[in-house]
Structure formats: structure tokens, C-alpha cells
Amino acid sequence: MAAGVAGVGLSWPSKLARSPNSILPPLSPSSRSSRRRVVKMALSVDERKKNFTLQKSEEAFNAAKELMPGGVNSPVRAFKSVGGQPIVFDSVKGSHMWDIDGNEYIDYVGSWGPAIIGHADDEVLAALAETMKKGTSFGAPCLLENVLAEMVISAVPSIEMVRFVNSGTEACMGVLRLARAFTGREKIIKFEGCYHGHADPFLVKAGSGVATLGLPDSPGVPKGATYETLTSPYNDISTVKNLFDTNKGEIAAVILEPVVGNSGFIPPKPGFLEDLRRITKENDTLLIFDEVMTGFRLSYGGAQEYFGITPDLTTLGKIIGGGLPVGAYGGRRDIMEMVAPAGPMYQAGTLSGNPLAMTAGIHTLKRLKQPGSYQYLDKITSELVQGIIDAGKRAGHAICGGSINGMFGFFFTEGPVYEFADAKKSDTAKFAKFFRGMLEEGVYFAPSQFEAGFTSLAHTSEDIQQTIEAAEKVLRQL
Ligand SMILES: Cc1ncc(COP(=O)(O)O)c(C=O)c1O
């Protein structure tokens, strides 16, 4: 069965059976009551619109700017590319967020990915409270590490052994050192617009905040750190072949987001991942899927399960921490056994594998594993994206986009979008107006044209309909 991507005209064989009348995944009693409560809260949205003000947010952010660079602890949060001041939040629950002025929003950022079962899930919170009674960090082995490791290994096809760290950035730093240690080579290929965290070797033609802020590279990154980083446009297999021809026997790894989320949502062309797998095998080069974003989001086994392509190594983050700070890298046992203390490649972490983060991850994955989860995500996300694209076209805008299960995106350009250069043709000024209009309607999208969006099991059909209606209204006014 083919899973289509609206607007970009691509399709792939889906590894997952899609039922036309997907049902909500079965809920436990506590999450059922949590979902009811969220729906009830959502009824107050119209009331909220009448009183929409961001005064407290503005005051808090002005104070923050004196305390922290740009007022934030991660650049994209600062709304630089969409104008205006960022919103300061007070609480989150399910698919909704509340700011410090009391405004309510339907959220499609999901804390940038982790919140796939909904924010502040009752079962996750209860499990965290139980774990916390025993302490917050041991700095020594704990049983919960075995449980999450076992879950990750049995879910993700490429992972036979795993190392937990504290962020996606750390996972990518670790995996790169490992790939270099294993192959004894130094060069890597990365793709334009893909983001692998903020470590020096990856800050070359990177996506996410680097793309959003229009920064070519970052000052402070020594030339030597990026000297061995070769780049290619995404979806461009002939450039990859040329790089292999001109750097014979020197390339340690090819690393990529198997579906790009950090320059907006860009899926691979049919055959692209297969070609990368074949070329890397032919050249004794390791293939690394950075699944920090796509892991457990495109399917329970990530993009590699969805597309049926098994890399040598994989990085994870976001969802496996259930909203607490976690990253991981894993892969073939023979490669992973190079990691210290099993082997000589050094990598360590004071808080790595801490019991709270392991607990949130375990309970998030347990929920995701229930039958129907990804069918439900597919149903609501494709409805959402198609609804927005149709509304955009009716209002006369150039717009394209798509989705795979819980990940989506749309661009204000005719398309097709196969690589970052295509994404950059988007009308970013129009996106900024759309974004701000949607905020006033109570919908929180990522504050950049170059970021993917995320849905969760807590998003209801009402959320989706309300979002499409708001988009229809805002798009007509642009
Ligand atoms: C694909 C990918 N890799 C790595 C990272 C870095 O993860 P973190 O922000 O947890 O350091 C991100 C963050 O968004 C990401 O999307």
C-alpha cells in the first residue's frame, strides 16, 4: 500500500497496514480521563480569543533578554524569522499549551518532537513520581537502563547495542567519533539543510536554527573541525557518487536525516535511501541515519522500518526521553563494541541513563506500541496537511507540503521540494504573517518555515478541524 506525500507527488510502499477508518489507540483509564479533560479545556478557545493579549509574555521576554543571550536557551525559540516576540509558556497538557497571559493554543511543535503521546501524560507523570521517590540520579547502573535499552533494540532494526546520552547533539557527536574510530577514516558526507546538533563538524550547511537565522556557518568553529565534512544537496545521488569518486577509500560515514525535518519536511525521493545503502556498502563506508527526529515518529521502528532500509548506525533522541533530556546512538554489535569501556573509543556522561529520563522514555514507548497508534497519527496528520494545502490553494497561494504519520510540513512555494535550495524558494514573509495570524487564532506552529511540524496521540479530530478552520480564515487574509 502506498503512503502518499501531498503536494510533492512522491509515494513509497508503506511497511504499515493503513486502515481507512483508523481508530484511536486503546487508552488506559487514566489517559482516557486526561484526554476528556483536554477536550473540555479546548471549549474555552473562543472565549480566549476575545481577550487575546501577550502583555505578560512581552514583559517576561524583555527581562529574559537581559539575562540570557537573545532571551532564550535555544535560538529558534526567539521568533527571529517570524518577527515579534516569543510567547512565554506556563503549562502544557495533551495537545494544548497555555501561556502566562492565560491564552490557550493547539500545539504542533510538541516540544520539538518528544511529546508524541501528548504533553504531561498522566501515566508518564505518575511513573516519574514513583521513580523520583527512589532518587533522581545514581551515577551508577540502574535496572531502568536495561528496560529502555531492550525496548529500543527490539524496535529499531539497525540497533543491536545502544549507548544512552543526554541530547541529540551528544548522540551525533558520539556516533561520528565511533564511525571514524571503526573505519580509521576521517571524511564524512552530510547533506545541505540536515541538522545533526551543534557540534563543530556538523555546522556546515546545517538546517534548523542555522538555516532559520540565515547563518552560513558559525564563528568559533575551527576550519580544522569542518575540513573533513563534505556536503551534497539532499536527494542528489550523483553528487554523492562524485564525492565517493574523488575521495576514494577516505569516507568514514554518510550521515543524514532519512526524512528531513530541519529545513522543513522533505522526504527522500524513491530510491535515494536504497542508493545510499548500496554505495556505502560498496565503499566500506558506514551509513548513519540520524533518527533523533524520525525515530519512533514515522513508525515504531523509525524511518528505517518505514522505508525498509537498515543503516549501520542510528542516532535517537526526543521521543525516547518522553520529554526529559535523552539521546542515544546504537547499531551493529561489532561497531558498538568499540565504545568505552568495551572498546577504546571514549565517550561518557555524568547524567547519562538517569532513572527519570529512562522512566519517561519507557512509558512513552509503551503507549506508542499499542495497536493503532501510527494509523491514528497518519489519519489526523494527513487530514491536517491536506486541509491546510486545500485552504491555501482556494485562497490563491502557492503552497505544497506533506506528511508521514506524526511528522508534517508545508511550504509557501509551488514545489516540488526535494532539497534545501527548493525550500528556500518559499515566501518566508508570507509564512511569518500566516504564523502570527494562526497564533491569534490559538494555533502554535513552529516559528519557522524551515521546521517540520508534529502531531500527537492527544490531538483530537476537533483540534484538527479547528486548526483547518483557523488556517482557512488566516490564509484568506494574507
Ligand atoms: C535530526 C536531529 N539531529 C540532532 C538534533 C540535536 O538534538 P538536540 O537538540 O537534542 O541536541 C536534532 C534537534 O532538533 C535533530 O532534529
UniProtKB/TrEMBL annotation:
Its cofactor is: pyridoxal 5'-phosphate
Q: Which CDD domains match?
A: OAT_like
Catalysed reactions listed for this entry:
(S)-4-amino-5-oxopentanoate = 5-aminolevulinate
Q: Which PROSITE patterns match?
A: AA_TRANSFER_CLASS_3
Q: Which UniProt keywords apply?
A: Isomerase, Porphyrin biosynthesis, Pyridoxal phosphate
Matching entries from Pfam families are given as: Aminotran_3
Report the enzyme's class at the first EC level. isomerase
Q: Give the Enzyme Commission number.
A: 5.4.3.8
Q: Which GO terms describe its biological process?
A: chlorophyll biosynthetic process; protoporphyrinogen IX biosynthetic process
Q: Which GO terms describe its molecular function?
A: glutamate-1-semialdehyde 2,1-aminomutase activity; pyridoxal phosphate binding; transaminase activity
Q: Which residues form a coiled coil?
A: none
Identify the domain of life.
Eukaryota
- Pathway(s) annotated for this protein in UniProt: Porphyrin-containing compound metabolism; chlorophyll biosynthesis; Porphyrin-containing compound metabolism; protoporphyrin-IX biosynthesis; 5-aminolevulinate from L-glutamyl-tRNA(Glu): step 2/2
The terms describing its cellular component in GO are: chloroplast
- Which family, according to the similarity comment? Belongs to the class-III pyridoxal-phosphate-dependent aminotransferase family. HemL subfamily.
Q: Known NCBIfam families for this protein?
A: hemL, PRK00062.1
Q: How does it assemble?
A: Homodimer.
What's the protein here called? glutamate-1-semialdehyde 2,1-aminomutase
